[in-house]
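Subject: for your reference before the review

Hello V.,

The reviewers asked for a structural picture of the protein, and I figured it would be easier to keep everything in one thread rather than splitting it across files. Below is the amino acid sequence we used in the manuscript, unchanged from the supplementary table.
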Amino acid sequence: MWVEALDVMLERLSKRLDLAKIVSISGSAQQHGSVYWKNGSFRILSSLNPDIRLVDQLGEAFSLKESPIWMDSSTTEQCKKIEEAVGGALELHCLTGSRAHERYVAPQVRKIYEKLPEVYHSTERISLVSSFMGSLLIGGYACIDETDGAGMNLMDIKERQWSNVALEVCFYAYEFVDVRNKTVCTGIQLHNLIKAS
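And here is what came back from the structure prediction:
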């Protein structure tokens, strides 16, 4: 639906103005929504043809067809587990800036990892809705904006980088396809999070 909406918008715009005259694009998107790119999707994304609708090119690019969004409240169990594992809601708040909320990406990803492991393990990259839309426009994976990344329950807001504690709590001590490669924040030093195999 996200992809088709962008197609419709670009089609409508092209009828009103010459798209070749556009020199920059800015946008905003809802927070707390995530998109799951299937393994091999970067190849598809980086070879998009501007003469073919995006929806026709990206139909098989997603490991999860429906994106969890801010209205989702199905992760109460995962929120409780995350808060308990870090020592309570206050500890999580001190670390990531807020207690666990059902709509946040960390509990959503943990739920997918727990309940749909085949989806999680077939996922090459996780984008927020904002970085997803940017990815469609640049033909590559756009970084997650740091301020959006801070609303995922995964970032140490004082250090301004992914929190090892939050990652381990959400992803069972790194028993997963590397989440650091799946979610990249602008300005966050990812090399600090690499663990020896």
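For the response letter, the relevant points are probably these. Residues 2-16 form the longest helix (15 residues). Residues 173-178, 187-197 have pLDDT under 50 and may be disordered.

Happy to draft the paragraph if you're swamped.

O.
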